[in-house]
Write a structure and sequence with these properties.
Strand order of the largest sheet: 2-6-7-1-5-4-3
Strand content: 15-25%
Number of strands: 23
Largest sheet: 7 strands, antiparallel
Shape: globular
């Protein structure tokens, strides 16, 4: 099993400049690879479009795409003029008809190109394009100054972008970057904390991960040093970069470190966030932590966002099989207010930049004759005609366009605060006569904008981290109480899509804002990570909300059964719905959780575990397993046994204790990954309080600690 472990870092204490140089070199190499790929695609497109069989079809596709875009722009212009969805149905139908014709034309063109690609002449031409691109890539790789582990990241990113239909895009340098080492075959934790030549971590005290110690003691003991190889000397010896590291969680026993990647991301105008990502290969059955796993029980999660009283936002709903937990997951107003405050600060920064730019451009125009050469070079585009490439590619076309431009005040089109800030710093060190007024306008803006940017970043970061911590604490609480997590397979990307102009559905901004504040994907990811892949049951999302889960009593026999009535209503208008079959009124998210719990009960095995009731589908082969299989060419029998191994054997699952409803105290069966059952006496669980995790070798009876879960 492959898992990523992320740890926090502080600013580098050794070879910081070399790390920055490596990130810049990897960024340049990425853009060079993008340029090669875009030119390769352009050459292949020219070969296919220029063929007599596809030239007319390609022109037809381009014409239909142009007409559809013009029709969409007409709808947008109508809405902007009236500030309402005032376009006619004929305008929307026109766009839909053009879209239908365009799809048919593209399908015809694709079929024609597929036929053409079988032509020997076309195949040879495309192969020649690929060979030229491969040769250029090898030349760029040989000239790349980045260490091999870092330039491999750039190559992998471009290879992933090649799979998309659209060509990859260039990336501007913002300071964000990564340095990495890839460890052939992986290294053990002993080598990681020892004398490996690629990555090293200084050993930490045993108190760092002893859950019996106070949090402050563990936090202090987990501080260590990370050393990563970023370059080699002429004699092949490693050149190390060092970062202070917080090893807040232990490396699982038996795990092998495959990749170590250090990333840098800008927090604000002055500070950076540093992280290290360790890609680990963990053996099957290895224990990743010391927390014990409950023997039974299930918790269902349904994602759904809406506004709640006191400006809170619901992110989802959780319901347990025993009914102890039955509530919504709330993002409190304190978290939302931080994010909204950061957005308000950002709006004010944009207004200040617009006002400063108008004043600065007016001053530069008035004093153009006395400006020094460096100011003209930074703010006025002045280029002499240069040699233009004769190759017919998008890059060459852009160069031809730029060569025709002679003089323009491009500073008036700047939208980046960092660009104006760089101009202010350059101006500070190169003052000239008569620049007092212009320099003061820029410097006053820079001083205020830096303050506002740090304020904005702090508010936004605090709100997002607070929400993430609430989700993680909730996930840890639920994972300590229940064995199985039941979720649906709903794709959240469908809610992130913005409706097209011709669509009948409106883009409801309040709902999109609530979705952004709720961050349902982050909530679900926290729960999935806390439970682990073997304790998660995914169910179909079909009719999980519409089917009524209310219990109905048959008047004739007195038997109880689920209503199951399917109703259709607008989920975005009303969260509660009255069933047309039984007349029960229920919350749609709570009803969905009840349906998920019902499906979980139907899948329960004879021993009460969900592992034995899963659908018998082969486990997906991991990347490392696939590499090992192809490298060592295992025997077919061994290959089938390793790639189609089902979920853990039922013999490792503890038996289910009979459910008891004790009002004051209950027996909580707890098991490890393969150990015998431990029965501990604990108070009944509460949605706001959970029993502390039990550590092997420690008494199971401990004082409860409060759990600050959302809501």
């Amino acid at each position: 099993m492959i898992k990523n472990y992320e740890y926090g870092l502080l600013d580098p204490t050794a070879n910081a400049q070399l790390v920055d140089d490596q990130m810049r070199a990897a960024h340049r190499y990425y853009n060079q690879l993008v340029e090669i790929e875009r030119e390769r695609r352009a050459e292949i497109a020219a070969i296919l479009v220029g063929h007599p069989d596809t030239e007319a079809l390609a022109a037809r596709v381009a014409d239909l795409a142009r007409q559809r875009e013009e029709a969409r722009l007409a709808i947008k212009a109508t809405r902007q003029a009236t500030r309402d969805r005032s376009e006619t149905s004929q305008m929307r139908d026109r766009v839909k008809d053009l879209a239908t014709e365009l799809r048919a034309a593209r399908a015809t063109l694709k079929t024609a190109r597929d036929v053409i690609k079988t032509d020997a002449v076309i195949v040879a031409a495309i192969s020649a394009c690929d060979d030229r691109a491969t040769t250029r890539v090898k030349a760029r790789r040989a000239a790349c100054e980045a260490y091999w582990g870092s330039y491999k990241l750039s190559e992998e990113a471009v290879d992933a972008a090649k799979k998309a239909k659209a060509p990859p895009h260039f990336k501007r340098w913002t300071g964000d970057g990564r340095v990495s080492v890839q460890l052939q075959g992986g290294i053990s934790d002993g080598e990681l904390f020892g004398t490996d030549t690629q990555v090293q971590v200084a050993p930490v005290s045993p108190d760092a991960h002893d859950l019996r110690k106070p949090r402050g003691v563990r936090r202090l003991a987990s501080r260590t040093i990370l050393r990563l190889r970023v370059q080699s000397t002429e004699k092949g010896r490693p050149i190390w970069a060092e970062w202070p590291m917080i090893l807040h969680r232990p490396i699982p026993e038996g795990a092998r470190v495959k990749i170590a990647t250090v990333s840098r991301r800008r927090r604000d105008c002055r500070r950076w966030d540093w992280r290290v990502l360790l890609t680990l290969e963990i053996p099957d059955g290895a224990s990743e932590h010391r927390r014990l796993i409950p023997a039974s029980g299930a918790i269902a999660l349904n994602l759904g966002w809406c506004k709640r009283p006191e400006d809170a936002v619901r992110a989802g709903y959780v319901l347990s099989d025993d009914g102890v937990i039955d509530r919504e997951v709330i993002v409190p107003p304190s978290t939302i207010n931080r994010v909204e405050k950061s957005e308000a600060i950002r709006s004010q920064r944009d207004k200040d930049l617009d006002a400063m730019r108008v004043t600065l451009v007016a001053w530069l125009r008035a004093h153009e004759a006395g400006l020094p050469a460096w100011v003209v070079e930074r703010t006025i585009l002045s280029r002499e005609p240069r040699a233009v490439p004769q190759v017919d590619t998008p890059r060459a076309e852009a160069v031809r366009d730029a060569s025709q431009r002679t003089r323009a005040w491009h500073v008036a089109q700047w939208r980046s605060a960092a660009r104006f800030r760089a101009l202010a710093f350059a101006w500070r060190s190169q003052r000239f006569d008569g620049d007092g007024e212009g320099y003061q306008v820029l410097e006053d803006w820079r001083y205020r904008d830096e303050h506002l940017e740090r304020y904005e970043s702090g508010m936004r970061r605090g709100g997002l981290l607070d929400r993430r911590e609430r989700y993680r604490m909730l996930a840890a609480d639920l994972a300590a109480r229940y064995r199985t997590l039941v979720v649906d397979d709903f794709d959240l990307r469908t809610f992130a899509e913005i409706p097209k102009p011709e669509d009948e559905s409106a883009n409801v901004k309040p709902h999109r804002k609530q979705q952004r504040y709720a961050a349902g994907s982050e909530l679900r990811a926290a729960l999935l990570n806390a439970f682990g892949p073997t304790r998660v049951l995914r169910e179909s999302s079909v009719d999980v909300t519409r089917a009524c889960a209310a219990i109905v009593v048959d008047e004739a026999t007195g038997a109880e059964h689920t209503c199951g009535q399917l109703d259709l209503w607008d989920h975005t208008v009303a969260r509660e719905h009255t069933c047309s079959g039984c007349g029960a009124t229920w919350d749609q998210d709570q009803n969905a959780c009840k349906n998920l719990i019902g499906r979980w009960r139907e899948r329960l095995g004879a021993d009460g575990s969900v592992e034995t009731a899963r659908v018998a589908t082969p486990r997906k082969e991991s990347r490392s397993e696939r590499l090992r299989r192809t490298r060592w060419k295992r025997e077919p029998e061994a290959e089938a046994a390793s790639t189609t191994e089902p979920h853990p054997s039922p013999s490792r699952v503890a038996p289910v204790a009979p459910a008891t409803a004790a009002p004051t105290c209950q027996k909580s069966p707890i098991v490890t990954d393969g150990a015998a059952t431990i029965t501990a006496t604990a108070p009944p669980p509460s949605p706001l309080r959970a029993p502390s995790p039990v550590v092997p070798g420690q008494s199971a009876v401990r004082a409860n600690r409060p759990i600050a879960a959302p809501g």
